[in-house]
Specification:
mainly alpha, two-stranded antiparallel ribbon
């Protein structure tokens, strides 16, 4: 490109009125006109924009660009045309066109401006790339300045933007956004013109916003570019001023606009475009908005949305609390502002501008509550928090004084305004009008206090700044807090909290709480802090000189203590603590509000409850810290003087105060539960703050000073919030959502379950909560007196009686979802219950709930079509809770016949029949009955009647399985026999001692299993025989096969460990062996016919069960048949891509009990080609080989495997070569290869590797890291492959170092590939694990550095090359241990060699790494 155009043309076409001062900024440098150089362009001259400033005026000929490229020109008529089309007045006078047509033309032209600018910018970029490519092709030279610099391109792009946008900006700023209500005429033509004008304004704003975004995208303007006369900056300055004028007109229109949807859309669109334009201007150069930042902040905050309050104009856009586009852009603008001033270290200026925003907004009048929307934007507050944390320490005092002065100034102005209306009364004792809550000064005060709190929260206290912070806290108590609270605060004067006094007190208590928090954090770093029992109550540290004025100083914490003490001494408080829980559990949903009405009034004004409670919790945190230090000091004194503990020690005084404040805080929080209970209350006093959020957030601290009453209160709130879907009046939606989030966070936090004070009551309150809510849904028709109360004893019996009448029905299902959620959470909660007798009461309640819910829900499901998942989940979860509680229930001698235990088996068997269509309920019942069986075994020696009764009930279940329902009953029977096998085989809990009065538990179990076999064996064979012919019997056949597995496994384990006795005669032994053979033959038939998945899984389970007693299994079937069948099943499972750990375990068990002949059968089977058509899959072969290596336990087996090891080694190489498989299969193959190689390398008796074989292994792994196609798809898989290869290398170095001496090249070639792979890895994709594995390998090389040191040079050079190319700091940090190990292997000769092979820039980059190695590294031994 050649030619030249300066800013002078833009000066000639600028609007005089708006840019009059801009014309003086630049001189007319002349413009280069390109004439009709070749005679073909006589009709129309062309104007060319050049990238070279300062060309002489005579340079008016077209020049070829370097490389023979074509010259790109833009016709000068484009600027004239844009000026003509966008200038409405000139067109009316010249062309006499209709006004509507002119508006349409201008609107269309404005819409084209971003397209024109984007096309030109992109053309410049493409031209620059082509020019650079031609220059590089020509050898990088080329004289005459033919190359294009990025700054020159940017100037060209910026000036073109100025040309095309000047007429648009002139039109926009001449006719700023106007209201649709500005036209008072009823003429339709005027209305049409007004609408056309609005469309044109929106188009111009859109063009401005989008083209400013293009300047950012293409870097067409940067403050670092040369701009000697500041022409570019001056143009942007006046664009900024014009946009701010548009904002003023826009906000004036917004104040008078009606609530129509069309007008609302227009206002929102204009807000979006203006906010976006301001953000682009800020990112272009923050200086443009620096002096006008207060105006910008005010406008941005007015566009931010708040879920609790939205303006009338954006109500249409805030359905379902979804933020509008303008709100998102305003959020982005404010985030950019905060980030910019954070990076500039000018947070103080931002705060000053925020304060100025109130003055800017107050000048226009109206409601200023929109400024508080800034505080609700989490990302902005987080960015501001980072700014506070990173600001220089010298600015802390300055910012602190700014906030103190701001608050004092607001309170003074508020008092002055009020003093003009009423009598002259002290600050802090103001009585104001009812509208003071929304007054400008009140809104500003709230904003200032909350911003001050954000600042205090994020101050990082340390040893250096703690004395200063402590003095600042004490200073604020004397200034801000004294002005807010007065010298003698009195909450009784706050009234409803809407007067000045209540508002000031609320803000004062909140601010004081965080001052206490910072004061506590500061004292942590200060030595010799005073923690005596009396002085510790005071935030201020009074000197002796201040004693005379001590009575005049404000002491908020002493005042808090007095309020808490006076509240705790009231009869209302004593009644609350004595009877609230009893009243709550006794009441029902219908009368709960009436029963608890007496607890509504707690004597503290509602608006002050939250602030007083938060202050109390801050004080509890402070006391907790002081008690810790006080105990340390007392222990030291007692240890030195050998005195006994003083019961009236200062720590006890502090503890008493903490307990009193916990009482006070929970008393306040409980008032919210009381007010929420009636979901239909009509109160309009909706609270926007949660009183339970501070309780939950301080849980780990206040529980140290609580009693069970407080823990139970907290758990009632926890379950109510966690299980409740919608908020109940008077809590606002926003506050309820916050509580919901906190409850969910607690439920997922492992630390929550470590709070012993709460967890000791967790199950009790949870079950009681679910029980009470479920009882509220039941209507006992005809006999209301049978309604069960919460405090009744023997709930199982009461529930059985109510269920037996059959008249208990669901009256309404409002609480069904709540009960279902609560029980689901209790069933899955990761809580380790303590083994205690108290759990029997919980078990009684759970069993009673199970009995009642099963009966009621069965009737409810029968009365409607379909199955309600929430109702079924109640039954399922209740049984899971029973299963979890049974192992933790400790029984006394008098409790063996408890109704909840005596009726449990019958209830579970009945539920299995009633809900046999739900697999979840069946499995939960099976788990519960097996746990109850374990309890019967545990207490058999103390009370054998439990086991006898259990088996008698189970025999009825067996009879039912034989006649009525086989599948569901067999599931319970199988769970019991499976638990028998577990206790017999692993825990040896089945006693075989028999007395004259009672048989042993083992004998009872044997009798039961034999009865099950006799009653159900024929039925089970009948179901198995129908497989393949009757598809509907699949589930029954699978159940029969699983039950056969448990029965025959028990018999097999008995016959292996015990000779034939009266418990199992020789005939019974032969019959059981015959059953095993018969089932085994059926399984072979199933496998050959490729039956369904259920039968295949049951067959696998049968084989693994039988292999658990290999001696018995191999007596029933031939070893060759058993091994070949298991191997075929493994091969089939492998072909399906589904691994079977049960079959692996079965094969391992048989290998451990096999001889040489059986080992030969296995190796021959896996190495032969089946059916002569294709060889077996390599992964399957190597898997069996790996099992053989790990499980062989005699010399004959090892000798046979040793003779086949080289064959298997060659086959294992195929695992790395097969890239046609899926990604998951490939990862599995590499992992299998790694496990096989590490095992084979460690077992030198099987194969002694040579250097050739080691080189082959390294060479086969090397290509895994050259194919980058596998690196970006699966992060976890990529790490697994890398870790597997590193483990093989580490095993080779540890076991075959001398063989590696002879073949170092393959080893270091692999290490180089691993290092290059790490360097290519994204720092966010778990780089740490790869670097750690590589460091282990490098450290293993250090003992062999005499041989490997010259080969390490290549690895170090690769690292230096990566440094030269640019390395992520995280990658560099993670690789340091590996590089240190490499440098430790290098001698002086290798170090000099590295130094000679790298250039000067590389030496500069590598020098800090080497110096760090010399300073810090020390070898500590092998990894």
């Amino acid at each position: 490109m050649d030619g030249f155009r300066t800013m002078s043309e833009l000066v000639h076409t600028m609007p005089v009125a708006l840019f009059k001062s801009f014309a003086a900024l630049g001189e007319d440098n002349g413009g280069d006109r390109v004439g009709d150089g070749d005679g073909n362009d006589n009709e129309q001259s062309k104007t060319v924009l050049s990238t070279k400033e300062g060309l002489p005026k005579g340079n008016d000929k077209k020049k070829k660009s370097v490389g023979g490229g074509k010259m790109t020109c833009f016709q000068s008529n484009i600027f004239t045309s844009l000026q003509s089309l966008l200038s409405l007045e000139g067109e009316v006078l010249v062309n006499k066109k209709p006004k509507k047509a002119l508006y349409n033309d201008a609107t269309a032209t404005a819409n084209l401006l971003p397209i024109i600018a984007h096309g030109f910018f992109e053309r410049i970029r493409v031209h620059a790339v082509q020019q650079q490519q031609r220059m590089s092709t020509a050898g990088g030279g080329g004289g005459g300045g033919g190359g294009l610099t990025s700054e020159a391109d940017a100037k060209l792009q910026f000036r073109f933007w100025c040309h095309i946008m000047a007429p648009a900006l002139e039109q926009l700023f001449r006719h700023p956004p106007s209201s649709s209500m500005s036209s008072t005429s009823g003429n339709d033509d005027d209305d049409d013109g007004n609408n056309d004008g609005k469309l044109l304004t929106l188009a111009l704003l859109k063009a401005t916003s989008q083209t400013l975004g293009l300047l950012l995208e293409y870097d067409a303007y940067l403050p670092s570019y040369g701009d000697p006369k500041e022409e570019h900056l001056g143009f942007l300055e006046y664009v900024t001023k014009g946009l701010l004028q548009c904002i003023d007109h826009h906000r004036a229109n917004e104040a008078v606009i009606c609530d129509g949807e069309d007008e609302s859309d227009e206002i929102m669109t204009q807000s979006l475009l203006l906010v976006t334009s301001l953000r682009h201007i800020l990112l272009l150069n923050h200086r443009l908005l620096h002096e006008r930042l207060a105006h910008v902040i005010s406008f941005a905050c007015s566009c931010l949305s708040s879920s609790s309050s939205s303006s009338a104009t954006d109500a249409h856009h805030h359905k379902n609390d979804s933020p509008s586009s303008s709100s998102r852009e305003a959020n982005a603008l404010m985030s950019a502002v905060v980030k910019t001033y954070r990076e500039l270290r000018q947070v103080g200026y931002f705060l000053t501008s925020a304060r100025g925003a109130f003055a800017s907004a107050a000048g226009r009048g109206g409601d200023l509550t929109f400024m508080n929307n800034l505080l609700n934007c989490t990302n902005i507050m987080e960015s501001l928090s980072m700014a506070y944390q990173s600001c220089p320490s010298g600015q802390l005092h300055e910012i602190w004084e700014f906030f103190d002065g701001w608050i004092v100034d607001i309170v003074t102005r508020q008092f002055a305004n009020e003093n003009g209306e009423s009598s002259n009364i002290p600050v802090g004792n103001i009585t104001a009008t009812a509208s003071s809550a929304s007054s400008p000064t009140t809104v500003e005060l709230s904003f200032a206090v909350q911003m001050f709190i954000v600042f205090i929260k994020n101050i990082r206290a340390n040893k250096q700044n703690s004395p200063e912070l402590r003095s600042l806290c004490e200073m604020s108590v004397k200034t801000s807090i004294s002005n807010l609270l007065g010298k003698t605060p009195d909450i009784s004067t706050a009234g409803s909290g809407e007067n000045h006094h209540g508002i000031l007190m609320r803000q004062g208590f909140d601010l004081c709480g965080w001052l206490v928090d910072l004061h506590t954090r500061s004292c942590f770093w200060i030595d010799s802090i005073n923690v005596d029992g009396h002085g510790s109550s005071f935030l201020l540290t009074q000197n002796k000189d201040d004693d005379a004025n001590a009575n005049n100083d404000l002491n908020v914490l002493a005042y808090l203590r007095d309020v808490a003490k006076s509240t705790a001494s009231t009869e209302q408080f004593k009644t609350w603590k004595a009877s609230w829980l009893h009243t709550y559990w006794q009441s029902t949903t219908d009368n709960k509000d009436d029963c608890l009405a007496k607890f509504h009034d707690i004597g503290i004004p509602l608006p002050l409850r939250g602030s007083l409670q938060r202050l109390a919790f801050h004080r509890i945190h402070q006391l907790h810290s002081m008690i810790y230090y006080c105990n340390l000091q007392e222990n030291e004194r007692h240890a030195a003087s050998d005195l006994e503990d003083d019961h009236h020690s200062s720590s006890q005084t502090l503890t008493d105060e903490a307990r009193m404040l916990v009482d006070f805080s929970l008393y306040i929080a409980c008032s919210q539960i009381t007010r929420q209970l009636d979901s239909g209350c009509n109160t309009t006093d909706e609270s926007s703050e949660s009183l339970w959020s501070p309780v939950a957030q301080s849980l780990c601290i206040w529980t140290h000073y609580s009693d069970p009453f407080h823990a139970e209160l907290f758990l009632i709130w926890f379950f109510s919030t966690l299980c409740q879907k919608n908020t109940s009046a008077p809590l606002s939606v926003q506050a309820f959502q916050l509580e919901k989030i906190i409850a969910l966070t607690l439920s997922r936090d492992a630390a929550f379950y470590d709070v012993s004070e709460v967890m000791s009551l967790f199950m009790k309150v949870g079950i009681q909560f679910a029980f009470s809510r479920f009882l509220d849904t039941i209507d006992a028709t005809g006999n209301p007196s049978q309604k069960i109360t919460q405090e009744s004893s023997g709930l199982t019996v009461s529930c059985m009686e109510l269920a037996a009448k059959g008249n208990a029905k669901l009256s309404f299902d409002d609480n069904v979802d709540t009960v279902s959620t609560a029980l689901s959470f209790l069933a899955s909660v990761p809580l380790e219950l303590a083994l205690c007798n108290d759990n029997l009461n919980l078990l009684d309640r759970a069993v009673g709930l199970d009995i009642l819910s099963s009966q009621v829900i069965k009737q409810a499901l029968g009365a409607c079509e379909g199955n309600d998942p929430q109702l079924l989940n109640i039954v399922r979860s209740t049984k899971s809770i029973i299963a979890n509680m049974l192992p933790k229930t400790l029984l006394l001698s008098s409790e063996f016949d408890a109704p909840c235990l005596a009726n449990l088996t019958g209830q579970l068997s009945k539920s299995c029949f009633d809900f046999r269509f739900d697999d979840g309920i069946l499995f939960a019942s099976a788990t519960s009955i097996s746990e109850y069986f374990s309890m019967c075994i545990d207490y058999h020696e103390k009370n054998s009647g439990m086991l006898v009764n259990f088996f008698s009930q189970m025999e009825a279940l067996v009879a039912s399985a034989a006649t009525i329902d086989f599948v569901s009953n067999s599931l319970l029977i199988r769970s019991v026999i499976r638990r028998i096998n577990i206790l017999d085989r692993h825990n040896h809990s089945l006693s075989k001692k028999t007395t004259s009065a009672n048989p042993s538990s083992y004998e009872s179990c044997m009798n039961f299993v034999q009865k099950v076999q006799r009653r159900l064996q024929d039925i089970m064979f009948q179901h198995l025989a129908k497989v393949g012919s009757d598809p509907e019997c699949i589930k029954a056949a699978a159940t029969a096969l699983l039950l056969f597995s448990e029965i025959l496994s028990f018999f097999g384990n008995h016959l292996v460990t015990t000779p034939v006795t009266k418990m199992m005669t020789n005939d019974q032994k032969e019959a059981s062996m015959m059953s095993v053979r018969k089932v085994f033959e059926l399984i072979k038939v199933f496998q050959g016919s490729k039956c369904c998945v259920e039968i295949a899984d049951a067959s696998i389970y049968f084989l693994s069960s039988m292999a658990a007693a290999p001696g018995y299994f191999l007596l029933c079937v031939t070893p060759s048949s058993a091994l070949e069948h298991i191997l075929e099943a493994l091969a089939l499972s492998h072909e399906r891509g589904k691994e079977s750990p049960l079959l692996d375990a079965a094969l391992c068990s048989l290998i451990r009990n096999s001889d040489l002949e059986q080992t030969r059968i296995i190796t021959t089977h896996v190495l032969r080609v089946p059916d002569g058509d294709r060889r077996r899959d390599s992964a399957f072969v190597i898997k069996i080989f790996h099992l053989l290596m790990t499980c062989a336990n005699n010399q004959e087996q090892n000798k046979h495997i040793s003779g086949r090891s080289k064959t298997f080694l060659l086959v294992s190489m195929d695992l790395l070569r097969d890239r046609r498989c899926s990604r998951s299969r490939f990862i599995f193959n590499v992992d299998l290869f790694s496990k096989t190689m590490t095992t084979l390398i460690s077992k030198k008796e099987l194969l002694l590797f040579s250097g050739r074989e080691i080189a082959m292994i390294c060479c086969e792994m090397n290509p895994l890291f050259n194919d980058t196609g596998f690196e970006n798809n699966d992060v976890n898989g990529d790490i697994a492959v890398f870790k597997s290869c590193c483990s093989v290398v580490a095993s080779l170095i540890a076991n075959y170092p001398k063989q590696l001496y002879g073949c170092p090249s393959p080893l270091f070639s692999l290490l180089l590939a691993l290092l290059s792979h790490i360097l290519r890895t994204n720092a966010k994709k778990d780089l740490s694990r790869k670097a750690l594995e590589y460091a282990k390998v490098c450290e293993l090389l250090i003992p062999h550095k005499d041989v490997f040191k010259k080969h390490v040079v290549g690895l170090v050079l690769r690292y230096i090359q990566a440094l030269r190319e640019g390395m992520n700091p995280t990658t560099k940090s993670k690789l340091m241990p590996s590089i240190y190990s490499m440098l430790d292997m290098c001698s002086d000769f290798e170090t000099r060699q590295i130094n000679a092979m790298i250039d000067v820039p590389s030496k500069t980059l590598f020098a800090p790494v080497f110096q760090s190695y010399q300073k810090f590294y020390q070898y500590h031994g092998q990894a």
